Amino acid sequence: MLEITLQYIPIKLDVAFLAIKQDYIHLLHYRIAFFIHVFSSIFVLLAGFTQFSKYIRKKYSSIHRKIGWLYITFILLFSAPSGLIIGFYANGGFFSQLAFCMLAIIWFVCTYMATTSIAKCQIISHEIWMIRSFSLTLSALTLRAWKYIIVALFQPRPMDVYQIVAWLGWVLNLVIAEIIIFKKYEKKYFI
Contact 106/129 with Cβ under 8 angstroms? Predict the structure, then answer.
């Protein structure tokens, strides 16, 4: 993901993914949302990985809290809203656009719920919502992984690939998150 992100530095409008988005690149709100999403999401991914370390949570709880607040702030203020905007312009037509817009909204809601839970000192609820939030954060990786697998196995048309991975990239992550939550918390607490 870092390699993908670095392709856009300095700001370039005709490289990588943007090379196929030339119909929209003239729209200022699209350009702003795209770059906010790309640059904030790389941080969110890195920050998210640290939040599930028991070692960091126990030994360096203040670092866990600070990085956690940055993770939450970046998603709620930058990554999810910009993802919603660019979701309206997703390749693959209506069903891809619907998938990416739903992803942005559900990502925002899960992260917001994690925030309200920790503000109320509801630790287990916070953990559950963070598992959901991070499973959606990981869609940036799983979407690309599924794209490579599907193309290698079936060689579908490019827009068909977008329609498939738009959903597969996050829905399966959320299903796996729910299985993890159920197995870990079924006896303690379940939302």
Answer: no
